[in-house]
Amino acid sequence: MKVSTSTALLLSATIAASVSNVALAFATTTIHHHHCHHAPTITTTTPSRSKTSSLSMAGFGGGASPSAAKKGKKSKKTGGALPKLKAKTQWDRYQTDLKTSKSATVGVRIKSSDEDDVTNEWMEVGRVRSATDEYEMAIARQRALIAEHSKRLYVLQIPEDSILEWGMKRSGEEEEGEEEVWTVVDKSSGDDAPKGIEKRIGFEGISDEATGFYCYYHEGRVIAKSERPKGGAGAAFKNVKGK
Prior knowledge:
five-stranded antiparallel beta sheet, 10 strands, alpha+beta
């Protein structure tokens, strides 16, 4: 079948227009108008492929790399904390295992918000012993026992939510005519305590007859250490209720 020249030209124009429309769909055309008599300049820019935003994966586990996820996890501490001490056990060690060791008097006071304020009075709680004479370490390591007992002895003076600090004074070291002075013990003194240190230290609290802590029983009643009868084996024996 013969096609006329005009029909062929029309078909060519239609195909060209279709191709142009497709090209324009994927391109951005900018027409620059010049203030002169020349024809306008047409600039065509083909857009690049858009990058997938990392936010598109947020909430579905795809926003972070495996290495980042590992960094987010807290590392487990090695070593572990030293075992919790028991009042009765540490008292037995104080009186039996460490009976030949010297002792240091231990006390507490309520910590003031002002570091320069030292007006709060020290309250004596008991004594500590150490096989190596490391008294500050012995106090710091047994500070929980000391704090607990201080609240038994000084119920009205020490509110439940009080922040305490610990102190010590050596027994038998004061010079004649001079009063013993309390020295603040930093609780971090026990941070580097070696394994098994609890077996080489001990604590004896002031007798509290109301609770039976650090008391003795004699003839059916609770007595303080100062009331222990002398002589006669088995005349009194140690007892800490519930410990």
